[in-house]
Amino acid sequence: QQPVQSPQAVILREGEDAVINCSSSKALYSVHWYRQKHGEAPVFLMILLKGGEQKGHDKISASFNEKKQQSSLYLTASQLSYSGTYFCGTEDFGNEKLTFGTGTRLTIIP
Amino acid sequence: DAGVIQSPRHEVTEMGQEVTLRCKPISGHDYLFWYRQTMMRGLELLIYFNNNVPIDDSGMPEDRFSAKMPNASFSTLKIQPSEPRDSAVYFCASSQHPTGRLYGYTFGSGTRLTVV
Predict the structure, then answer these.
(1) Closest CA to A103 of A91, A90, A88
(2) Which of A11, A44, B64, B104 is most solvent-facing, going by the fewest CB within 10 Å?
(3) Can you list the residues of chain A whose pLDDT is less than 50?
């Protein structure tokens, strides 16, 4: 079953912050985040393993709450280059493959 | 390394024709994945290989779809006969781990397939 992402789309002005959420109905071993720009391939951003860790990548960071089976991606002081569709991919226990969410389209305007 | 290489980038074909999509993974990546992306269903895993052996093909829609990996540097996804509902972007990805746990998946640029 696909993880659910929210919101489906968001429009921000440059410099504003955004939060993208990913929820699963299954117990998760890891959560992965990818960004896809229009007409291009998805690009790996980061992975979070069970243990409730939080990771950062420039001004993009993420957290993983394994008890709630949720992950959130935080984009701080957004830049025009952050525009694209963000996908979470979830790995549940005993199932060695990723299932991707439906994506969140982020548009940054000047 | 040039990354994951897919061909062709675009394919337009008539319903009923055979379509073959090609992929060259990154050297040293033991896992190769075929995904299909549509607006309605997002990124769907069709099949994946480990060391050229198909491991999970549960996502392959029906018998019209087949995939092969004759060696570590080449894979094909074939649709025969093609139907308009097969229109989508098909991505190939490779990794050192089945879930990309170390460094994630590296995706190719995709093949945009249009069946008319």
Answers:
(1) A88
(2) A11
(3) none
- Alpha-carbon gap, residue A95 to B15, rounded angstroms: 36
Structural contact between residues A82 and A104, judged by C-beta atoms closer than 8 angstroms: no
A91 to B108: CB separation less than 8 angstroms, yes or no? no
pLDDT tens sequence across A25-47:
998 889 999 999 999 999 999 99
Q: Which of residues 52-81 of A touch B (CB under 8 A)?
A: none
**What does the block give as tokens for B25?**
């993974």
At residue B87, the pLDDT reads: 97
Q: Is the CB of B98 inside 8 Å of chain A's CB atoms?
A: yes
Does the distance separating the beta carbons of A34 and B104 come in below 8 Å? yes
A51 versus B38: the higher-pLDDT residue is B38
- Token pair in block for residue B5: 């290489």
